[in-house]
Design brief:
The structure holds two protein chains of two kinds.
Chain A lengths: L8 H30 L4 H7 L9 H11 L5 H13 L13 H35 L4 H10 L4 H15 L10 H32 L2 H8 L4 H17 L2 H19 L5 H10 L3 H29 L2 H4 L11
Helix pairs in contact in A: 1-13, 5-6, 5-8, 5-11, 6-8, 7-8, 7-11, 8-10, 8-11, 11-12, 11-13, 12-13
Chain B lengths: L1 H11 L9 H30 L1 H4 L31 H37 L1 H12 L6 H12 L3 H10 L2 H16 L2 H8 L4 H37 L11 H8 L8 H29 L1
Helix pairs in contact in B: 2-4, 2-12, 4-5, 4-7, 4-8, 4-10, 6-7, 7-10, 8-10, 9-10, 10-11, 10-12, 11-12
Classes of the chains: A mainly alpha, B mainly alpha.
Chain lengths: 326, 294
């Protein structure tokens, strides 16, 4: 068997995906910049006048802040300057706190990563359980559960969990708790939509796998349905389901904003929530670009992991269904 | 995120039921029809709340009766009363209009922009198609909640602002679905005939292609409506909607946070209302889809 045509395939695949991830982050930066500078309305006046825009702001103050932020320069100069600074990890200074945005993000990142990774692990485990249960005999309830779970607003779930497990039965801290006990309720809240997603996609993939001839053959030889699902179906069904990890990450990043607010946890989500409330544009921009970079990083990791799980994809990368939307 | 989930699930499209179990099928068909009717009724009721809140709520949403503070749900106050003695049910009913307005605006923006771009991309093909579809996908680099927050940080707070911020995140999905449908329709004989008969592209597009995209696009819009209600109420919860004391679903839940220990109904009942609407919209969307396929 000749392998020579494949020798360049792997490096080319790698380079292509790396480039794509870089382009995605650059696109995210550009979108935020465009929204902040090109949308009708004056961001500086909006920032100074507070949330409702009732108070009149002296024009000289507006001009001063505009000069401080560099908003008085030509738009293309602003864009290039911001892009070069962002490449160096400099997102400017917060208007509210006067501190460098990068430092604020770096401080808050560990708490959000801790929350996000715990929720990710929980949603994968719970999603697999749901998917398997849905494909076992009498799995009707497990099949209905994900559809129900995605319809629940996460602020409701979080508040109900606080009500039950912190207030009615004081087992866990309700707000701002630290360490493992403080992590349980927020992580569970954040994990629920993700678990529903994994359960849905993996469940369908598993149902399809079970209709494959080899599974039918296994059943015909007398293997129980449970054995076929756990011993054979799950591993093969997991390959297409890996692609949802990107969507899952996007959901976790967005969900963290609500969950950190509900549980009064310090973190990236809380920072962006406060920054939007106070129209602190540099902070919003910094957080969104960092989140988009993380998002692109996960999608890159999936792209690199995929050929390891399923070698056919390197030669036919177009076959994969890409869903970047979060 | 959820929009993408359902998008995916729709694409994968596999039904769980194996063919050839007719005995169960009939039973489930009846139950699912009842479910569809119930879902439709929920949406109709919510539409009524949004248009004529006075018909459904006997109490004021703004004025409270101080003597009736923190009444648990019961006769007279089905959802209880809050810290100012305001009827929570009345606040939910009156809060429907801003929530639904924002959601309808969001769906309308996503639908109008998405369908227009998808039509042009699918019909003309080639370079315009590549440019449009790549352009539509650029905002997908940002997780949708953060994209909405970015828009709000520039536009400011309010019902319309929330609607626009959420609508922007839906354009790509509508554009993709429309384009896919247009590609199918464009190849059909009646479009070819219209082009050969000398119809101008714009006319062919509007008269002979657009009507056929309605099925999948409407099913998507119903699905989108539920997810958009979820997103809108989350933004309301974060405090970006109309300022208090105006009732809005998400803001109602946020307002009940301070009384979590004593008055569960302030958060749970408005929150469950949101969940019921989202579920119902998902159900109606599925029914529309199945109807379209059959």
């Amino acid at each position: 068997m000749s392998r020579s045509p494949d020798r360049t395939a792997v490096p080319r695949y790698l380079a292509g995906r790396l480039l794509q991830a870089a382009v995605v982050v650059w696109a995210a930066f550009t979108v935020v910049f465009a929204i902040q500078r090109l949308v009708p309305g004056d961001p500086v006046e909006l920032m100074l006048s507070g949330r409702n825009g009732f108070e009149a702001v002296p024009p000289e103050d507006v001009a001063r802040v505009r000069a401080e932020l560099g908003f008085d320069r030509p738009i293309i100069v602003q864009y290039l300057d911001a892009a070069v600074s962002a490449l160096r990890g400099d997102f400017g200074t917060s208007i509210q706190t006067g501190r460098p945005v990068a430092a604020m993000i770096a401080e808050a990142l560990p708490a959000t990563l801790e929350l996000g990774l715990t929720a990710l692990a929980l949603s994968v485990v719970a999603g697999i359980v749901l998917a398997v249960a849905a494909n076992l005999p009498r799995g009707g309830a497990a099949r209905a559960l994900p559809g129900l779970a995605v319809s629940l607003p996460s602020f409701l779930v979080g508040l109900v969990l606080i009500q039950l497990f912190a207030l009615r039965w004081p087992l866990l801290p309700s707000l701002g708790g630290s360490g493992l006990p403080g992590l349980v309720l927020p992580a569970c809240t954040l994990a629920i939509p993700g678990a529903a997603l994994v359960g849905q996609v993996l469940g369908r993939s598993l149902a399809e796998t079970l209709r494959e001839p080899y599974c039918e053959t296994l059943r015909a030889t007398g293997a129980s349905r449970t054995r076929v699902v756990l011993g054979h179906g799950l591993r093969n069904a997991a390959i297409p389901a890996v692609t949802v990890a990107g969507v899952l990450t996007g959901g976790l990043i967005g969900g963290a904003v609500v969950v950190e607010t509900v549980f009064s946890r310090q973190g990236i989500g809380r920072i962006v929530q406060f920054a939007v409330s106070t129209q602190d544009l540099p902070v919003v921009q910094g957080v969104v670009v960092v989140a988009a970079a993380g998002f692109a990083g996960v999608n890159l990791a999936i792209d690199l992991l995929y050929p390891v799980l399923d070698p056919r994809t390197v030669r036919r990368p177009a076959q994969r269904v890409r869903t970047v939307k979060a | 995120m959820k929009r993408a989930v359902l998008d995916r699930v729709r694409k994968t499209g596999a039904r769980d039921d194996k063919p050839g179990i007719p005995a169960k099928k009939g039973l489930r068909g009846g139950a699912s029809r009842a479910g569809n009717v119930l879902a439709g009724a929920v949406l109709a009721l919510v539409a009524g709340w949004a248009l004529r809140p006075g018909w459904f709520a006997g109490h004021s949403a703004i004025e409270g009766v101080p003597a009736e503070r923190f009444r648990p749900p019961g006769p007279g106050h089905p959802f209880g009363t809050d810290q100012l003695g305001r009827d929570v049910f009345a606040r939910v009913v009156h809060g429907t209009a801003p929530s639904v307005q924002a959601a309808v605006l969001a769906v309308a923006l996503g639908l109008a922009a998405g369908v227009l771009l998808g039509l042009l991309a699918g019909f003309f093909g080639g370079l315009p198609e590549t440019l449009i579809m790549r352009g539509v996908e650029i905002p997908l680099a940002i997780p949708s909640v953060l994209l909405s927050l970015t828009v709000i940080s520039v536009l400011g707070f309010g019902t319309v602002e929330i609607g626009l911020a959420v609508g922007v995140t839906g354009i790509a999905t509508f554009a993709r679905v429309t384009r896919a449908r247009v590609l199918q329709v464009r190849a059909s004989p009646h479009v070819e005939a219209a082009v050969l008969a000398g119809g101008r592209p714009a006319r062919v597009l509007v008269r002979h292609v657009l009507p056929f995209t309605a099925g999948p696009v409407l099913a998507l819009a119903a699905l989108d409506f539920g997810l958009v209600v979820l997103a809108v109420s989350s933004l309301g919860f974060l405090g970006y909607g109309a300022p208090p004391p105006a009732p809005e679903w998400g803001a109602l839940v946020a307002g009940g946070r301070d009384h979590l220990a004593t008055a569960w109904w302030l958060t749970v009942l408005p929150g469950l209302t949101v969940a019921a609407v989202v579920l119902a919209a998902g159900r109606v969307s599925r029914a529309l889809q199945d109807g379209g396929e059959a």
